[in-house]
Model the fold of this input.
Amino acid sequence: MPSSITLDGRSLSIADVVATAREGVRVAIPPDVLARVARARAGIEAALARGETIYGVNTGFGKLAHVRIPPESLRDLQLNLIRSHASGVGTPLPVEAVRAMMVLRANVLLMETSGVRPVLAETLVAMLNAAVHPVVPSQGSVGASGDLAPLSHLALALIGEGADGVRLREAGLTPVTLEAKEGIAFVNGTQAQTGLAALLVHDAWVLWRTAHAGAAMSLEAVRGTPVPFDARIHDARPHPFQQRSAAMLRELLADSEIRESHRYDDPRVQDAYSLRCTPQVLGAVGEGIAFAERLVATELNAATDNPLVFGEDVLSGGNFHGQPIALALDVLGIALVTLAGLAERRLERIVNPDLSSGLPAFLARNPGLDSGFMTAQIAAAALVADARVLATPASVQSIPTEGNQEDFVPMGMTAAWKAGRIFDDASRVVAIELLAGAQGLEYLKPLQPGRGVARTYNAVRRIAPPLVADRSMAEEIERVAAAIRAGEYDPEAVP
Done:
């Protein structure tokens, strides 16, 4: 993790966003970037001096764009925009999401196309470094013209209004007085949905890799065969993430005594799809995450406000439209539902005595007296059902706004909320599979699993001891799910 990051409007990465949002690394802006932004501001000043009509600078907004605003009211126009659009509702976004928004918004303002003064980005960075985190409601954005409501709540702090403005001053920072174009430049953009998307993409990759650890442990528990993971099979169908998935499983299962115990004279010819086709399914999930990552990574350094400044030309367009990110989040959500559904099917094969190749019913020491993992599997089924309902795409749910001026909107924040909840559901399903897989291995001792599976087993046992009699597993499931999110079972992170 970097000790600090430098913003230039061009090179921000998902890893930078995660480090800023979650680890609180310091943020800096080079002097030459600030100078570049100051020079770009001259384009707006020149256009106003020529008497040009510029949307949102000397006109009203949305359906009111036909209203020309006199020069003496240009400051009031920007201020009124912030106040009127700060109409978000719902539970406040977590601090990490707000910090992601802030670093993204600062980065975009450092592009010459915004036409703002350097002080806006400088103040945002100062707020980040001083841990001044505005309260931003989670609902109220349709994703175009960008995330107007969330970014307006962020802007309220910037200009020193409300309780967040008080905290700004208490931190020794000076509120910004908005000049022409600076209000609309600040709130036009996709930084709320993109910030959430960046964090989710990072987390999705951790979960994707961890799902392989769960799959490998389940395979060992039911004494399945690793033959379907042979590289030759996957080279014959060369989807990159399918190949990577199979390779990860081979590494996790290497040197397994359990495998050797049933290599010969096993009457089973091949395993069920949930075991045998793990690389094909999780490979496709990886392709979905990679698709989302590509769109999000591009958006981090994209000009998403309106109008945009190109030298002396000020052009109105629609880069604020959040369709790319909304679609990315919908695909990400569907991919994670697939991951969760596959994990639950493997879980069923471990706990069901008709499918588990000799493991006791529901992994209980005394089936009948004890219920073991019976209800844990029910919880997993409930989580998958919840995730499947949430998989309905938000990006096709347009509801026109702004007097039908904004007549096709992407619902990116809704997509982000759904994808985040799906991620939580999927993490808990994988947590239950890890716990059940570890319990299944108890019944195969003294045989040892593959070396990667053994590492995962030991990591699980640091949280949850073997189940010797019925107990509440609710806390253990949540602790393992939290450990998943922290990367503690990530095969690529475990030494």
Notes: The first strand starts at residue 4 and ends at 6.
